[in-house]
Amino acid sequence: MSQTTLDSQTPAVNPADVNPPAVQTDDGNRQSGNSPSEHCDEKIRLKRVQHLLQIHYDKRKLPKTITEEFKDCYESGVQVYEDIAKVKIALHPEAAQAESSQAERTLSPPEKGALKEAIRRWARAGSALELFPTDQYGPKNVSEAIDAFWTAASPGADGDRYFAFADGLFLGRWNAKGNESYRELSRLTNFTVATIRRVVYDDGASQEISFEIDARFQGKDYKQKSLENADFHKMEWPMYLIDPAAVRFTDRPHTAQVAIQLTAQHLPERRVHTHTGWIEVPKGEDESEWLYLHANGAIGSRGIRGDIKAEPRSQKVRQIALPEPPTGEAAKKVIRASLKFIDLGPDKITMPLYATIWRAALPEPNLTVWALGLTGSFKTSTLLLVQQHYGEGFTDDNVSHWNDTDNSVLRVLHEAKDAPWLVDDYVPEGNNRERQDKQVDNVVRGVANQTGRGRTNRNGTPQPDRPPRALLLVTGEDRSGGHSKASRTVFSRFTPGAIDKAKLSAAQKDAAAGVFAQANAVYLKFLASQYPNLKSHVQKRIAELRSEFEAVGRHQRIAENLASLAVGFEMFLACAVSQKAITEAESSALRKRFVEAMDLVAAEQDAVQKTEDPITEAIRMLKAAKLSGRIYFGGETIVEELIDTSIPPEPRAIKIGQLDGDGSWMCLPDVLYTGLLQLYREQGRIFPKTKDEFLQELKERGKTETDPGRTLKKAPRSWKSADDSRPRVVYFPASVLAEDEEDKG
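RE: above sequence
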């Protein structure tokens, strides 16, 4: 390409006046002896340019070098290029004269457009820009058009430029060929990305980053394609996210990623709340407010806001969707309609379920309410009415079920924050019982302790803890075994015919019409203004009410669970009174009914607790197994020492130990515990205690005698170990075995 000429109004530089600086470093950097006032003198600048051109200084670096050496001397980059052009003309006047007529020609708008497009085509073909022919448009016009084309692109590092054309993304770089440097473009992708938006998915416990992009490929738009953070950086997504024919041509994915980031429009960040329930949001400079998130918006003390809402990843949780809270007479009407729930059946069935509606929206609803009953007792239908207070769209198809995976259930319970959530139909059968018991134990324990299941990412790093944050509702024909789960659960037992079908049908119509959801919207609006102090209030009231439900022999957790439900019912009554839907006298009467109903629930719970005490149940199981011949002993007395020669009464019988003369049992700990585990396993169940826990609790409760002197004296000689020492022995006195374990508890 020929040299660029000067504007006709710019005086030419006399080559004789353009001399190298007096002081010059080895690397070509100038160390001027001129005073600061002379630093910006034109002659000094031009001398420096001439010197760099004569030593064939890299053309790519020349403008930047001059700009840096003469800081504050140039008002724009155009002036730098003008100085370079002046020196080139002075050094090669014959070339400038030959091209002056073309260089000074002014192009018409159509010609400028044609030149611009021609340069674009030339560059996309991979041709060097400096080799673009100048005959038609003139060297100066071509040079200016190339510079405009280059500088209009997105700048990268080390002078790189990134271009977005209709047919893909390109990288422009300076390349050296011999003693000359040229600008060339290489193709990176055959698609473009128009916009990028950073999306923060906030589940209230952790945050995940992803990107939403709008891409274009072969004339077709691909809107709001979502990419995980790691996938975006790997650049392996175009083929499956856009089209199988969408590719990147570079072997360095980072280069294509940079091109996308520099050429796309970056939209404002979007924050997505992937959970329902309470959040605190700024209200002013030093103020904030509490809002209850749901799929339709957020409810605060002033009503519903539509500019923020919950967007759970689970489609089921998106059914938690509430309307604008009604006011005045409409609010009274929906609250009184909701109160009809407690008349669907006996109070001991309906009261604990109704209280869950209101307790779920209070801080830390860490309990489980389990509806027990045979098929056809309307358990699921009744609990769906509880769920429909949080969204009229709930059906038995969009709640969870016990045949879902553990992780699926726990994830939903994490997203459905501050709401009740139904896991339907616990029906363990055969070999499936052990699996479902483990699942129930994981879920119920997680709800009670507000802890998630520890998991790791594919690279071994721990995932954020995602504890259950919903109040768990369960239906089942039976309860899952386990003393621990019983203490974390409130049971509501459905009996055949207990639920009034006509009243149930009427309630279902109200629920489907959104009446119950409106009642809950009124309640949540009532809570919003009080929420900053609700946690301390709830904790205090649970502690105060616990004594109302305490009784001799009752597990402390049962009293706490009932007190927790009572706080929820109290808060609803306070809301109903504030809306003048009920009077203070009606509120007092309802609370009295509630306490009486919960006393009945507690009495049934005590029976469940006694039945599912693992120590009592283990002794009962061992006694029954002895009577049935499922376990046997080595001989009628220790003296006979028939441990190794005895014949079991039936082929599958388990040898459990040795009988003393008075009917007491003497067992080796490992043999006893292994036999007990086998008995549980045959019933498809899991014994919830370790061997050491089991033996320690037997001793603490006085079920065994473990005095070393007596134990060693009574142990059979054949039980000696190789070093002639006597082993540890579990000794069940005949008096303990004769007790009625059910009466003793």
